[in-house]
Amino acid sequence: ASGPRRRQVLRLVGLSVATTEKAVAVVYERSWRPAEKQHAPWIERCQGQAAAGLAALEAIAPEAWLMGEEMTAADVAAGVMYDFVRLAVPELLPEGRYPNLDKFAKRCAALPAFAETQPEPG
Predict the structure, then answer these.
(1) What is the pLDDT of residues 69-103, one digit of tens each?
(2) Strand pairing partners for 65?
(3) 26 φ, ψ to 5°?
(4) Rounded to whole angstroms, how far apart are CA atoms 106 and 40?
(5) Whole-angstrom Cα distance, residue 53 to residue 14?
(6) CA 50 – CA 17 distance, rounded (Å)
(7) What CA–CA distance (Å, rounded) separates 115 from 122?
(8) How many whole angstroms separate alpha carbon 43 and alpha carbon 26?
(9) Secondary structure of the chain in the HEC alphabet?
(10) Using CA atoms, how far apart are residues 93 and 100, in angstroms rounded to an integer?
(11) What is the pTM assigned to this prediction?
(12) Residue 80: C-alpha distances to residues 10, 26, 28, 37, 86 (Å)
């Protein structure tokens, strides 16, 4: 409820949310702006920031969950982020680039709460 562990969980939630927001910015720019008004440098910048978030989460290399043996809000945020990025901006998750995140996402997907709420592609 408090202390260093809580701050670490909040930091990881923030990292996942920020990564998601950068992926949303890419989707927005590509999907809602007319082609002639899309700004490629902005898309590249957002993709780079999202990739940095993915790399930071990859570096954690969790054995079970991001903070150890118990699932926390950090795991929920990271699992949701991964699913969104996989569907909305799949080029940010090329095969084999993030093996720890891939393994983590499979662990999340096996849980009923994740399995029953998988978003549909498209």
Answers:
(1) 899 999 999 999 999 999 999 999 999 999 999 99
(2) 68
(3) -65, -50
(4) 32
(5) 10
(6) 10
(7) 18
(8) 5
(9) CCHHHHHHHHHHHHHHHHHHHHHHHHHHHHHHCCHHHCCHHHHHHHHHHHHHHHHHHHCCCCCCECCECCCCHHHHHHHHHHHHHHHHCHHHCCCCCCHHHHHHHHHHHCCHHHHCCCCCCC
(10) 12
(11) 0.91
(12) 15, 17, 18, 30, 10
Please report where in the chains the tokens 């902005």 appear, as a residue: 42
- For residue 117 the two structure tokens come to 């709420």
Handedness of CA 90, 17, 52, 12 (dihedral sign): negative
Count of other CB atoms within 10 angstroms of residue 114: 17
| Residue pLDDT, tens place only, 34-77 | 989 999 999 999 999 999 999 999 999 777 899 988 999 999 99
